[in-house]
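retry 2 of 3: previous attempt timed out while embedding zinc ion. Reduced batch size to 1 and resubmitted. Inputs unchanged:
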Amino acid sequence: MKRITFQLRPPASATRSPCDRCRRPSFGGMTCHDCLGKDLADLVQNRGAVLRWEQSLRALVQDERTVLMYAARRSVD
Ligand SMILES: [Zn+2]
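retry 2 succeeded.
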């Protein structure tokens, strides 16, 4: 989950390079979130739970960006 979180919420300095398994773009040249998500779903034997968690994480990332965008606008005023 930590590695998936890193892929969906990378530090600003992270660069993309091919996933070590599927060759799709991945941050830090590590395994991409799709491959890691499949591993996690197999591990817990529940793809639905993993997909729901990933959706929540994506929503969190988007909401953080929105709040930070408004904060940046405020600091310019
Ligand atoms: Zn991959």
